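User: Run a structure prediction on this.
Assistant: Running it now.
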Amino acid sequence: MTELIAIGGSIGTAIFVSIGGALINAGPGSLLVAWILYSCIIGLVNNCMAEMATYMPVSASFIRHAGHWVDDAFGFMAGWNFFFYEAILIPFEIVALNLVLTFWRDDIPVAAVCCACIVAYGYVTLLHISLRSN
């Protein structure tokens, strides 16, 4: 199962957006080697998290593990680091979606895609909150 999570984590929006410059400069062979090395590191991290979760199961995420295994302050900062990562990831995903859509069609308005994504994120958040309260 962790291997599938590693593969899913290494194939993302960057494969469609950020990889173009590296493909032009380095070529497909070195890009494949870099992707394999990156996937191996992701797989190792996921295996380490699985080992910690089976050794000491807790009812929380990896932030709780960071606080328990290293220090409470480290867990606190890991939580804030993950929050900032997710907060920056949402605009990146919207920009990446616009880049992919404008590559295929030029007549799609960028503002409409941004508004649709923001509405979709808000709807999913409200749906998640309402499901948790029940």
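The longest helix spans residues 72-104.
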